[in-house]
Task: inverse folding
């Protein structure tokens, strides 16, 4: 069943259902009494990794504790994000935030948050209120732990939470200012891995789940690992900072994770300008125009503020995001009526079996995200979730470009419903996987036929990282939890396996001693990006040079990727001479920059934060590495890890549940916290930490107890 994009009607309809679901949650008689009740009934036990274990008598107490915990570990970051979500970053924080503010107002985030708040169920309204009460209470009781630069953001409100949720979607996951301006759908930093293993492929006979989002290690993508427990619920997982619910989690019965999918949830429309409007359906339609004054704080303390004027023009498609003489580009985005994702996440966490979980995700309120699921009953599932527009015609390539916006032919007004979206349940293979690839490759033998779905729904390609994912799963018919964790940390480069069989004989036959030496290094290399791997730096540099020197319109590959051989292509070298020339250049570059042709990967690529400096492992997913880590230059001859394995959890649904996890960059961003760096040693050793869920386990590793 399709859902029409009619914001007010859609919000009213889902709100009615949420209202019925919320009637069993009692509310306090007054705001003051409610805050006292939440605090009196909430206890937070902080373990030695800075993970808050929140115990409460009811849902509101858990929300209060999560707000308090986010402030303790990430307070300044949280307040900065809320200032940006208000569209007041430049006013409260400084001029560097002006472009973000302009985008926030252009996308209508603050006003839409009021609409969203008004349609939340009473239970979610109370939940949001409790969450912000926890944030504000921590700030009041711990003023020294709030930075001077963000103090003016206080107090925070429920609207800040909903605005931040929207900003995550409209400035990162679904669209962004840069994507709209560039006219591209690619966003290189986002990504994730997910596995669900059925009992038939599990050594213990119990289903297992791997949660492994890959996000930047800072800003709006920061995670807080936490536990929330109340009578009838024991939920463990992680929340994106600013979220009042856990976004990836498991309980005693089931668990889920997310990966960014290949949904095309945004479209760019070219408008032909005429007068103060644009051509539409044979006539002229006027823009809806809004003039917004944005206050900008002075550059220096005590400096005079200024006012920035933003004129927003909105078309039938959406806001104008670019102009040129006689033309304008308008942006249309899905998810603007999906006001109930927080309620969906909460209901997912309360589910105890597959039927209840499917009922929880049926509203399909979480845009742009796959859901991978496993449970104690042995079920596994992959769901290509999110809101995909119902488009009149055209394939993926058509909609990824700029489409004509002068008439209703390209205007979509509905999105595909839950029943129309691809999903795989309990496949014979005993696994489902996703590495940001299309749904067709979630398991093998293939369980989904692309021809049964609209051509714009998903891409057809399969990345090297996804191919590596499937290869590891299919190589082991009886996987233990320990093996799952080991496979997850694999840094093997499938790209090297596809290339070196051609490259090494060419290098050995070369007249150049530089090329022959380089070939010897690559022949001895373990084809991985581990700390001590010698040859990985050279190979990555060779691939960079080879790509730069390949003529436009040609490919490095002899056999490009083919839908008929999705797991064995691309393969081979198309131009041996160019490949050898690139290898000589790469070898020269590596020696010049790093002093040795076989420099260790971990000597060049580092884990650096505060006073910690450790060798890194992992490389770009485009190299066919299942453990992708992104780096940025950190001086002339070193690189620092800045993205990739942001949160990892490996769960086996035994009784009791067995689990291990990591937030590699640490569970806190607050300056001076020991939990900014205490998990980097695990990250460099490719290990996960234990997950403590029982009170006895937590008390044995207790660091702090509060809010009793």
Result:
């Amino acid at each position: 069943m399709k859902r029409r994009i009619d914001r007010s009607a859609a919000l009213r309809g889902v709100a009615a259902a949420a209202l019925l679901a919320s009637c069993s949650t009692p509310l306090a008689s007054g705001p003051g009494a409610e805050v006292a009740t939440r605090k009196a009934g909430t206890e937070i036990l902080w373990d030695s990794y800075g993970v808050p274990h929140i115990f409460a008598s009811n849902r509101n107490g858990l929300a209060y504790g999560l707000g308090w915990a986010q402030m303790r570990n990430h307070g300044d970051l949280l307040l900065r994000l809320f200032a940006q979500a208000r569209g007041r970053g430049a006013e409260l924080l400084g001029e560097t935030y002006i472009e973000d503010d302009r985008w926030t107002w252009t996308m209508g985030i603050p006003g839409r948050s009021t609409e969203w708040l008004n349609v939340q169920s009473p239970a979610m309204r109370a939940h949001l209120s409790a969450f912000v009460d926890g944030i504000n209470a921590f700030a009041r009781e711990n003023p020294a732990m709030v930075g001077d630069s963000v103090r003016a953001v206080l107090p925070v409100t429920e609207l800040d939470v909903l605005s931040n949720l929207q900003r995550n979607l409209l400035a990162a996951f679904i669209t962004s200012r840069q994507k709209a301006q560039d006219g591209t759908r690619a966003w290189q930093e986002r990504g994730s891995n997910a596995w669900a293993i059925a009992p038939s492929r599990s050594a213990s006979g119990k289903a297992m789940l791997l949660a492994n989002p890959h996000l930047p290690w800072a800003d709006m993508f920061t995670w807080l690992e936490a536990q929330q427990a109340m009578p009838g619920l024991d939920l463990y997982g992680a929340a994106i900072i600013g979220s009042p619910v856990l976004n990836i989690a498991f309980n005693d019965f089931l668990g889920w994770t997310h990966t960014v999918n290949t949904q095309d949830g945004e479209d760019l429309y070219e408008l032909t300008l005429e007068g103060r409007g644009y051509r539409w359906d044979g006539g002229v339609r006027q823009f809806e125009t809004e003039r917004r004054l944005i206050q900008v704080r002075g550059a220096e303390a005590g400096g005079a503020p200024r006012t920035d004027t933003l004129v927003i023009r909105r078309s039938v498609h959406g806001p104008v995001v670019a102009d040129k003489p006689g033309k304008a580009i308008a942006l249309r985005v899905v998810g603007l009526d999906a006001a109930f994702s927080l309620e969906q996440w909460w209901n997912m966490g309360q589910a105890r079996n597959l039927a209840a979980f499917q009922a929880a995700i049926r509203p399909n309120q979480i845009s742009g995200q796959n859901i991978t699921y496993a449970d104690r009953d042995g079920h596994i599932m992959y769901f290509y979730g999110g809101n995909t527009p119902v488009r009149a015609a055209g394939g993926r390539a058509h909609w990824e470009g700029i489409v004509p916006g002068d008439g209703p032919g390209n205007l979509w007004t509905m999105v595909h419903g839950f029943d129309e979206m691809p999903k795989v349940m309990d496949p014979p293979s005993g696994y489902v996987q996703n590495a940001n690839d299309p749904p067709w490759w979630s398991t093998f033998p293939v369980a989904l036929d692309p021809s049964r779905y609209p051509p714009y729904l998903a891409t057809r390609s399969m990345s090297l990282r996804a191919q590596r994912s499937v290869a590891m799963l299919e190589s082991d018919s009886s996987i233990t939890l320990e093996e799952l964790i080991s496979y997850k940390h694999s840094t093997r480069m499938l790209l090297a396996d596809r290339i070196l069989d051609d490259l090494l004989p060419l290098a050995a036959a070369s007249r150049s001693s530089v090329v022959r030496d380089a070939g010897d290094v690559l022949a001895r290399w373990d084809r991985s990006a581990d700390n001590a791997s010698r040859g990985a730096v050279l190979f990555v540099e060779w691939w960079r040079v080879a790509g730069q020197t390949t003529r436009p319109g040609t490919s490095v590959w002899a056999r490009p990727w083919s839908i008929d051989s999705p797991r064995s292509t691309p393969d081979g070298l198309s131009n041996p001479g160019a490949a050898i020339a690139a290898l000589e250049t790469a070898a020269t570059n590596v020696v010049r920059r790093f002093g040795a042709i076989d420099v260790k990967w971990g000597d060049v690529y580092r884990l650096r934060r505060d006073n910690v400096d450790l060798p890194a492992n992992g490389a770009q997913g485009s190299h066919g590495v299942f453990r992708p880590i992104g780096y940025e230059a950190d001086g002339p001859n070193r690189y620092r890890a800045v993205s990739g394995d942001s949160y990892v959890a490996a769960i086996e649904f035994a009784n009791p549940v067995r689990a291990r996890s990591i937030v590699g960059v640490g569970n806190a961003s607050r300056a001076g916290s020991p939990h900014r760096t205490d998990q980097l040693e695990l990250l460099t050793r490719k290990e996960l930490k234990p997950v403590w869920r029982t009170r006895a386990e937590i008390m044995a590793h207790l660091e702090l107890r509060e809010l009793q």
The radius of gyration is 26 Å. Residues 12-37, 183-189 have pLDDT under 50 and may be disordered.
